[in-house]
Amino acid sequence: MSESINILNKHIKSLQLGNVTSYKNLTLYPLSSSINNNNDYLTLEDAINSGKFLVTEINDSGSVPELKVLNLLNENVLIIDGEELVGAKQNRIVNASLIISKNSEQIIPVSCVEENRWEYKSKTFSASENYLYSSLRKKKSCSILNNLRNNASYTSNQREIWADIEKKSNSQTKRKISKSMEAIYAAQKQELNNYEKAFNFEEGDYVGFIALVDGKIAGCDIFSSKTVFSKVFKKLLRSYILDCINTDGVEADFIKYDMDNIRKFIQKINKLKKEEYDSKGLGKDIRFINKNVSGYALVNDNEAVHVAVFQHN
């Protein structure tokens, strides 16, 4: 077993469950860790807002599955898998969690979440408050693992992503909207806000959470840094909320989930066979899948920087 996988397993073993919070059909169990980690990476939003972290098309013509990142900062920057970048020739989401080293230039793997547009809105991308919704992030992680195994590539199944966004768009609103993830979030702004108000984990001593949708485990996101988690929590929360919203207004009954089953879900992660790949940034990318669970982790500098796990219900 590699050192990176050992670091990941150790971090998972350190997790402790907090008090459950629920609203309508979404339930969150916050997670804390007994391990104190010291690396607080600059987040994508903070980096872009500094004016010294530029995300652009790779050239004037552009390439759907790739973007160029220029980090002029003297700090490493963490980009979270699923974060949306808006602007340039079309909106994209990032295909893997990445650490972009200070004072560097990097080509990063992305997927399009705005079908039909291919013209410049701006020269550079901006950070969005949106995040690839959890059910599609699960599908994307599976297709990327398949491409890593077969082609050593972090490309996704782009047609699958477009098809899923169109399906989500049709189910989330009764009026026709553009085939973009950004439009779906905009159409559900009020309901998203209603859910958000029920959950406030930024000020707790937490590094992540487990989410249940309609009483079933959907997945979890875990970080090494409490500071990073507090900054990205709202984005991640919104990605699970979008999968909770029912267009017909019918609320799913909340089903109290047994704490032992929650703990078993966490324990499953360490039992999974894991595959290690070189990240497109700093560190190692760890992937895992079986018939019940799939996910990934970014490990760097003796820390499990970001871990995402999805249940296949």
Characterization of this structure:
There is one protein chain. The chain has a domain at 3-40 and 132-311. The longest helix has 18 residues, at 134-151. Helices cover 30% and strands 31% of the residues. Strands 1, 2, 3, 13, 14, 15, 16, 17 and 18 form a nine-stranded antiparallel beta sheet that branches. It has a six-stranded antiparallel beta sheet with strand order 5-6-11-9-8-12. It has 313 residues and is an alpha+beta fold. It contains eight helices and 18 strands. The model has no long low-confidence stretch (mean pLDDT 92). A hairpin with a 2-residue loop joins strand 13 (208-213) and strand 14 (216-223).
Topology:
Layout (H helix, E strand, L loop, with lengths): L2 H11 L1 E3 L3 E3 L2 E8 L8 E2 H6 L3 E4 L9 E6 L5 E3 L3 E5 L4 E3 L3 E3 L3 E9 L12 E7 L2 H18 L6 H15 L8 H7 L1 H8 L11 E6 L2 E8 L2 H16 L17 H13 L2 E5 L5 E6 L3 E8 L2 E9 L2
Parallel strand pairs: 4-7
Antiparallel strand pairs: 1-3, 2-3, 3-13, 5-6, 6-11, 7-10, 8-9, 8-12, 9-11, 13-14, 14-18, 15-16, 16-17, 17-18
Helix pairs in contact: 1-8, 4-5
